[in-house]
TrEMBL record:
Signal peptide (from-to): none
Region (Disordered): 1-21
Species for this entry: Mixia osmundae (strain CBS 9802 / IAM 14324 / JCM 22182 / KY 12970)
Gene3D superfamilies given in the database record: LmbE-like (3.40.50.10320)
Name of protein: N-acetylglucosaminylphosphatidylinositol deacetylase
UniProt EC number: 3.5.1.89
Ranges of compositional bias, category Acidic residues: 10-20
Taxonomic lineage: Eukaryota, Fungi, Dikarya, Basidiomycota, Pucciniomycotina
Length: 316
């Protein structure tokens, strides 16, 4: 009887111990209970410890080297070649940079004007801005800022003029009257004895309506008897505009036949600035304190117009 009771007690004690024991003695929580995601973002991250395929490395190397070599060649080695810098520009004496607003001269034309002044036989630079840029009431300040910009670009202060006429005011919705623009431009052409004008093309570089109006007036002037030569700077799409020197190889392809055939045609020019010219352009824009907002700093890094200009001669 004692043995049976003892056995019963032993079984009861064992049962109690089993009930008190944890239901699962492995890892907690059990794997079958955990909610594992079907995929992990970590798997999508590239493994940077692994070397890139040779083809990828070669492509990246070419993307960097080709524009760099192209820039060195055109800015330092072949900068005075007639294929890129035509005789009509090389022999210019009085060159007028014609723009719509203060800061246009350095944001869109600095490679062109500095290249002409440094590479031409004996050229003097002039700047004519058709309005003071008074759209936000800063016209008086912007007129003063232009003087510092001209100095940085190598243009004497007395050769820089900003107009402020009632019918030609900074307005992104108003097309300036062509006849009035031609009249004002002709006055300065006669005053400075201008033989070459550099300005916008029909796209206005940025599409601004005032830029395009200035271009239309300059082209109209070029058709008049005895007018100066008018070169317009090419407008490109947004992707090319903000690809800095990466756009130079594509742009220079059009000049390869001219270079190989030793052409000295005056119809087109590719003016690529040196590093010192780029720094001059940055210094010029820093004179425009009222326009120094964050996107301008980015513009000075990535815009092709800070590094080179392609010009086309407007046919008379």
């Amino acid at each position: 009887m004692a043995n049976r009771r003892s056995s019963y007690e032993n079984e009861t004690d064992a049962l109690i111990e089993d009930e008190a024991a944890p239901l699962y003695d492995g890892e907690y929580p059990p794997k079958r209970w955990s909610r594992q995601p079907k995929f992990s973002l970590a798997k999508l991250r590239p493994d940077l410890s692994k070397p890139w395929p040779p083809v990828v490395r070669l492509v990246l190397l070419l993307i960097v080297l080709v524009p760099l070599v192209n820039w060195i060649a055109l800015a330092y080695v072949f900068s005075r070649s007639a294929a890129f810098f035509p005789p009509l520009l090389r022999t210019s004496k009085q060159v007028l940079l014609l723009a719509a607003h203060p800061d246009d001269e350095c944001l869109f034309f600095s490679p062109a004007i500095t290249s002409i002044l440094q590479r031409a036989d004996d050229a003097t630079g002039h700047v004519l801005i058709m309005s003071s840029g008074n759209h936000y009431g800063l016209g008086a300040q912007r007129r003063i800022e232009l003087k510092g910009s001209c100095k940085a670009l190598g243009i004497a202060e007395q050769n820089c003029d900003v107009l402020n006429t009632t019918d030609i005011q900074d307005d992104p919705t108003y097309w300036w009257p062509e006849e009035r623009l031609v009249e004002l431009i002709k006055d300065h052409v006669a005053r400075w004895n201008i033989d070459t004008i550099v300005t916008f093309d029909s796209g206005g570089v940025s599409g601004h309506i005032n830029h395009r109006a200035v271009s239309a007036a300059a082209v109209a002037l070029a058709k008049q008897e005895g007018a100066p030569n008018v070169y317009t700077s090419a407008t490109v799409n947004v992707l090319r505009k903000y690809s800095a020197l990466l756009d130079l190889p594509l742009t220079s392809l059009a000049f390869v036949p001219r270079f190989l055939t030793l052409s000295d045609s005056n119809n087109h020019a590719l003016l690529v600035g040196t590093f010192s010219q780029y720094l001059a352009a940055r210094k010029a824009f820093h004179s425009h304190k009222s326009q120094m907002v964050w996107d301008r700093y980015l513009y000075m890094l990535v815009s092709r117009y800070m590094y080179f200009n392609t010009l086309s001669l407007s046919q008379s």
